[in-house]
Specification:
By secondary structure, the protein is an alpha+beta fold. It contains 13 helices and 18 strands. The longest helix has about 40 residues. It is elongated, with a radius of gyration of 28 Å.
């Protein structure tokens, strides 16, 4: 959410930003919220004037009564009563105007960074750099569920009977590999100086609206019936919510945190052939990284964060590339975002395994996360988030890139301590 004062003073900049995000339907909202904000401020100013006049007149009544001028005092009281009626009307209107302004401001997209490429959707995202040499072996790579089945590591049929489509049972060595990847990612981030956190897996509605756009909320979040609670779609939601309403001492920054959580997502809409199996599912686990920092440091942290994900994937012998998200592919709160994509030797192309985002002060403004400077100044923090790893999707890349012709899967050296020292997973008869 952008600053209403900025919008008021720079309506053309806000409108141009909306056009860059190809959301022209939102252009009328700029003029609408300016008019509502004007009414709100006028309403507040009139109420403040009445209160000031009321205080002044109350003193006059006291003085008149002290002088024995009861009739004059009663006349002034009648005037006060009339003012009180008008004040009550203004006070009743103020929350309504505040809510209308806030609701519109929540739908107007954040100002994107000037470096963001302009494009309508993810088909116009821009490749930044490749890391590692993508290899296509001289034997056929099966679909990832077939690889897992040969390792006796997955049961989708039972999951469908128990929970429906979009769920899975991971079994044996594949389940152990899943946990090993998460444990390795946790320790990898701790070694980078991040503090490990396990957050709540449910959050209240005021936190949901603080961390994400309405479109994201509708397409992602599961609501707990009868309670003001939602299942998190990523630990970023509860991690950022932790600082709601907080005043953070500048000396404590940056806050660098890495969090584990299960994630729950509706995943609305039909998906293609490549998104069956465990690619797009309703439940998965993820290791995330979160940074809360001073505004002038956020772009430096943005570059550090995605580079950590690239580094981790390369230690697991997985080639990756970074893809700059274009303006139309950015969620409304994001200033800048880059996807990390892993190489699929089966598809002979890259696919998304993580995303790093700088949200500027958008989440901090919604949740009132402020910083107190050494000189006493108070200002909004910047927040960033990035996927470290998100199995089982990440497992697809791992299995394809470490598969041998006989169906066995190599375990990179860095992962072996988490796999009981084994160097290979063998197919099961």
């Amino acid at each position: 959410m952008i600053d209403i004062k900025f919008l008021r003073e720079n309506p053309d900049v806000v409108k141009e930003n909306i056009k860059k995000k190809f959301q022209d339907r939102k252009l009328p909202l700029v003029d609408e919220v300016i008019e509502l904000d004007k009414k709100r401020r006028e309403n507040q100013a009139e109420a403040d004037d009445i209160r000031a006049e009321k205080n002044k007149i109350s003193k006059e009544i006291g003085a008149l009564m002290a002088q024995g001028k009861k009739e004059e005092a009663e006349a002034v009281k009648a005037k006060v009563a009339e003012s009180a009626k008008r004040l009550a009307e203004l006070e009743a209107l103020q929350p309504e105007l505040d809510e209308k302004v806030r609701n519109i401001m929540l739908t107007i997209p954040n100002i994107i960074d000037p470096s963001v490429p302009i494009g309508k959707d993810d088909s116009e995202n821009v490749e930044v750099q490749k890391y590692g040499d993508p290899v296509v072996p001289d034997f056929e790579i099966p679909y990832h569920t077939e690889i897992m089945e040969k390792l006796a590591g997955i049961d989708l049929d039972a999951a469908r009977r128990v929970a429906g489509n979009g769920f899975y049972y991971l079994i044996g060595d594949v389940a152990r590999l899943h946990s090993a990847v998460l444990s390795y990612a946790r320790d990898f981030m701790i070694d980078k100086g991040f503090t490990y956190v396990i957050p709540p897996f449910m959050i209240r509605s005021d936190v949901v609206t603080g961390v994400m756009s309405f479109d994201e909320m509708d397409s992602m979040m599961y609501k707990i019936e009868g309670e003001d609670l939602f299942l998190i779609g990523t630990s970023e939601h509860s991690m950022i919510g932790r600082f709601k309403g907080e005043m953070i001492d500048e000396a404590e920054l940056p806050l660098t945190l890495t969090s584990y959580s299960p994630c729950f997502r509706k995943e609305k809409g039909a998906h293609g052939l490549e998104e069956r199996g465990v690619y797009r599912i309703h439940q998965f686990e993820k290791q995330e990284m979160i940074v809360v920092c001073k505004p002038e440091e956020s772009m430096d942290w943005y570059d550090k964060m995605w580079s950590y994900t690239v580094e981790l994937f390369r230690t697991l012998d997985i080639p990756v590339r970074t893809l700059e998200c274009c303006s139309g592919d950015l969620a409304d709160l994001k200033v800048k975002s880059v996807d990390v994509e892993a190489w699929s030797p089966r598809q002979k192309k890259y696919f998304e395994v993580g995303s790093c985002s700088n949200l500027g002060d958008a989440q901090a403004r919604r949740l009132q996360i402020r910083i107190k400077g050494e000189n006493g100044d108070k200002y909004l923090a910047h927040t960033l988030n990035n996927t470290v790893v998100a199995p089982p999707r990440m497992l697809i890349a791992f299995l394809e890139n470490n598969l041998n012709e006989d169906g066995s899967v190599n375990i990179p050296e860095v992962l072996r301590p988490y796999m009981g020292g084994i160097s290979k997973i063998e197919p099961k008869k």
